[in-house]
């Protein structure tokens, strides 16, 4: 797999899986907590797959967590890899690393938000 594809594919995949955790758990909890239960019912009737996603939240969070871990390891290993000597390619390489790190951090934030609402908030509220 090309390095540039590898540096963007796994973090982007982890972004989508962590967004799934946000949709399954954080969004419904937020809607209920602000009193938008009817809006949640309409949302679930429009997107019925959310019920299945919520039913298998352990699998959803497990797979997403594994992908985030793999993406984090890849980020860590690639942090000191050399960029090309050509100034234009070196600039593109540096930019790609910043974008990849940004995608990873957003994914991690989304995952932790979903994790809080799925597993921690029900126990303290």
Provide structural commentary.
The chain has 125 residues and is an all-alpha fold. It has helices spanning 3-33, 37-46, 49-55, 57-78, 87-124. Helices cover 86% and strands 0% of the residues. Helix 1 packs across helix 3, helix 1 (3-33) runs parallel beside helix 5 and helix 4 (57-78) runs antiparallel to helix 5. It starts with a helix and ends with a helix. 24% of the residues are buried.
SSE inventory with pairings:
Blueprint: H1 3-33, H2 37-46, H3 49-55, H4 57-78, H5 87-124
Beta-strand proportion? under 5%
Q: What class would the helix/strand composition place it in?
A: mainly alpha
Helix content: over 70%
**Global mean pLDDT:** 81
Would you identify the regions where 5 or more consecutive residues have pLDDT less than 50?
A: none
Order of helices and strands: HHHHH
What radius of gyration results from the CA coordinates? 18 Å
Number of strands: 0
Count of alpha/pi helices: 5
How would a crystallographer describe the biggest sheet? none
- CA(first)-CA(last) distance: 46 Å
Count of domain modules = 1
Indicate the overall shape: elongated
Keywords:
125 residues; mainly alpha
Task: Describe this structure in a few short sentences.
The chain contains 5 helices and no strands. It is mainly α and 125 residues long.
